[in-house]
């Protein structure tokens, strides 16, 4: 009897699993085949999230985060479609389209910032190991022209495993153009730390998982302190991401982490809202012109 029950149970489990796997497979396949079409139809939208200098309470930059508004499936998260775009190679045309759109918005904005505004684009490892990225940045910089823009490329530590000769050449060419490099999600990767000495990195972004635990865990505070120390000694600037409340902001400010980003300041916003935000910030700056 027990034997029969175990068999029955196993059969049920297998059935449920195969159904789940089939569903998941059809979902990902349809997302994948939809993506090329979506690119043609301009369904990928750049969202803009401000990066603040909390010492001066000013916006010093924007991170560009992609959103996919599928006409029938609705909102698809970048955590779902970015990995699929990386697999299929579509990530390169997707990023190029994104950079063209962002550059066009900035070029057509009537505002000049008092200081250099940082525009950060997330770049996948496949794109960085391809010389094409150098031309893509060139195009971006030519389009924005005389605006005070510093282009920052964010490379996530999760993917960043080996630094090849091509990568180093690409990075050197980017440096020559004045493009800055940021390591995203710092502290979550499996890549060791040796790349820090091989590459000339401008920014480290403290991963939001650390920021989220700053208040609760002594261990997290120790890790964050060590990262702050490391960045200072290696002459890299820090950006804290995922700052959600005043206590996290204050803790980090106290440790001189001046660049902060998160829902506490502003959520990622669409183009129209961003233009408005940009205009308001500029009015605020003009009203009280202090150095950043
Ligand atoms: P990321 O680059 O580390 O971006 C930060 C993520 O945290 C974004 O999620 C952002 O919306 C979210 N976030 C910002 N502030 C807060 C906060 O205070 N609290 C919390 N809980 N979350 C916050 P999003 O937009 O869903 O993007 C997820 C990831 O997808 C990004 O992580 C990035 O790795 C990737 N991604 C997004 N757009 C692109 C893209 O255009 N290209 C590439 N290659 N990757 C992208
Ligand atoms: Mg990022
Ligand atoms: Mg991140
Ligand atoms: Mg992340």
TrEMBL record:
Q: Which UniProt keywords apply?
A: c-di-GMP, Cell membrane, Hydrolase, Membrane, Transmembrane, Transmembrane helix
Instruction: Give any Gene Ontology cellular component.
Output: plasma membrane
Annotated transmembrane regions = 2-25
Q: Where is the EAL domain?
A: 28-282
Name the catalysed reactions: 3',3'-c-di-GMP + H2O = 5'-phosphoguanylyl(3'->5')guanosine + H(+)
Where does it localize?
Cell membrane
Keyword set includes Cell membrane: yes
EC assignment = 3.1.4.52
Q: Does the record carry Transmembrane helix as a key word?
A: yes
Source organism per entry reads Acerihabitans arboris
What protein is this chain from? cyclic-guanylate-specific phosphodiesterase
| Full-sequence range covered | 239 to 530 of 530
One MF annotation (Gene Ontology) recorded for this entry: cyclic-guanylate-specific phosphodiesterase activity
Its placement in the membrane is given as: Multi-pass membrane protein
């Amino acid at each position: 009897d027990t034997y029969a029950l175990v068999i029955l149970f196993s059969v049920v489990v297998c059935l449920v699993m195969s159904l789940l796997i089939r569903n998941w497979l059809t979902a990902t396949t349809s997302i994948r085949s939809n993506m090329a079409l979506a690119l043609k139809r301009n369904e990928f939208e750049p969202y803009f999230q401000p990066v603040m200098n909390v010492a001066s309470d000013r916006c010093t930059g924007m991170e560009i985060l992609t959103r996919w508004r599928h006409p029938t499936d609705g909102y698809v998260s970048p955590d779902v479609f970015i990995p699929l775009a990386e697999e299929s190679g579509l990530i390169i045309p997707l990023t190029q389209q994104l950079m063209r759109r962002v550059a066009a918005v900035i070029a057509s904005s009537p505002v000049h910032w008092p200081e250099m505004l940082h525009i950060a684009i997330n770049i996948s490892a496949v794109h960085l190991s391809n010389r094409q990225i150098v031309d893509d940045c060139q195009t971006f910089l030519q389009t924005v022209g005389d605006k005070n823009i510093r282009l920052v490329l964010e490379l996530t530590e999760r993917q960043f495993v080996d630094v090849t000769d091509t990568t180093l050449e690409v990075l050197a060419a980017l440096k020559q153009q004045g493009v800055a490099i940021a390591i995203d999600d710092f502290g979550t990767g499996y890549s060791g730390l040796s790349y820090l000495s091989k590459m000339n990195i401008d920014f480290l972004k403290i991963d939001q998982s650390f920021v989220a635990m700053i208040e609760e865990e002594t261990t997290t505070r120790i890790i964050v302190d060590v990262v702050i120390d490391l960045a200072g000694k290696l002459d890299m600037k820090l950006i804290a991401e995922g700052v959600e409340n005043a206590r996290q902001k204050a803790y980090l400010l106290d440790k001189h982490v001046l660049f902060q980003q998160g829902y506490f300041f502003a959520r990622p916003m669409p183009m129209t809202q961003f233009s408005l935000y940009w205009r308001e910030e500029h009015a605020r700056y003009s009203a009280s012109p202090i150095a950043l």
